[in-house]
């Protein structure tokens, strides 16, 4: 079955970081429901961590005035409707905004810009992650990628092949928060590195033999 964008929707898990805000025409009322922050705090991953809600191991977030709300295994839309229903019991014209802040993946190996990349969207594909990493380097193997995904207290490791047309149907085509993608080098680079190492060792050995012969001759 093809997993299209309309079919894949991420469901919140423990340790995810959420932005939750309550908005209404009466700012004095809704301010009690929101974490106070300055404009300068809202631009970096560090400030988002300080001003967001971390989902605890029980799948709950603790919101001012409202208290603990279960969000695990729910989509952002479901969480929004649930919190909005609670808030409107007290503020009839309130609107709730919920966003996922912790959608980050790490791309390593043979890419032009390895590192941690953030995506502020519910859907993040493998190809988008590689694009944000500057695409594969000239030695990156399109047939040998590994996806490492935190799962049930451990790590699931999956081999991926960009040349496989079935990749688009794979459940791993869409990435999840905290996924790690590793692009292995092609055999040509490994052979080149081995050749360079062999040449270096040979040059060193030749120099050593010349030194020994020089010492013997004197």
TrEMBL record:
GO terms for biological process: monoatomic ion transport. Gene3D superfamilies: Outer membrane lipoprotein wza domain like. Residues 9-100 form the Polysaccharide export protein N-terminal domain. Its main location: membrane. It comes from Sporocytophaga myxococcoides. It is found in: Cell outer membrane. Keywords: Cell outer membrane, Ion transport, Lipoprotein, Membrane, Palmitate, Polysaccharide transport, Porin, Signal, Sugar transport, Transmembrane, Transmembrane beta strand, Transmembrane helix, Transport. Residues 104-183 form the SLBB domain. The keyword Nucleus does not apply. One of its GO terms (molecular function) is porin activity. Pfam families: Poly_export, SLBB_2. It comes from the Bacteria. One of its GO terms (cellular component) is pore complex. Belongs to the BexD/CtrA/VexA family. The keyword Lipoprotein applies. InterPro entries: Poly_export, Poly_export_N, SLBB_dom. It is a multi-pass membrane protein. This is Polysaccharide export outer membrane protein. The chain crosses the membrane at residues 195-215.
């Amino acid at each position: 079955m093809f997993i299209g964008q309309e079919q894949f929707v991420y469901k919140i898990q423990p340790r995810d970081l959420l932005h939750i805000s309550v908005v209404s025409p009466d700012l004095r009322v809704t301010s009690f429901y929101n974490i106070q922050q300055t404009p300068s705090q809202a631009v970096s991953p560090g400030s988002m961590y300080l001003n967001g809600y971390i989902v605890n191991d029980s799948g709950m977030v603790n919101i001012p005035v409202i208290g603990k709300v279960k969000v695990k295994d729910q989509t952002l839309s479901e969480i929004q409707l649930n919190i909005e229903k609670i808030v409107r019991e007290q503020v009839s014209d309130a609107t709730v905004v919920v966003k996922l802040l912790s959608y980050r993946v790490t791309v390593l190996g043979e890419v032009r810009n390895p590192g941690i990349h953030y995506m502020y969207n519910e859907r993040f594909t493998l190809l988008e992650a590689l694009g944000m990493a500057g695409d594969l380097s000239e030695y990156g193997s399109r047939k040998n990628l590994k996806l490492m995904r935190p799962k049930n207290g451990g790590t699931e490791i999956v081999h991926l092949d960009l040349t496989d047309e079935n990749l688009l149907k794979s459940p791993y085509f869409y990435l999840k928060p905290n996924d790690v993608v590793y692009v292995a080098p092609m055999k040509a680079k490994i052979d080149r590195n081995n050749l360079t190492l062999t040449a270096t060792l040979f040059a060193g050995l030749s120099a050593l033999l010349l030194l020994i012969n020089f010492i013997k001759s004197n």
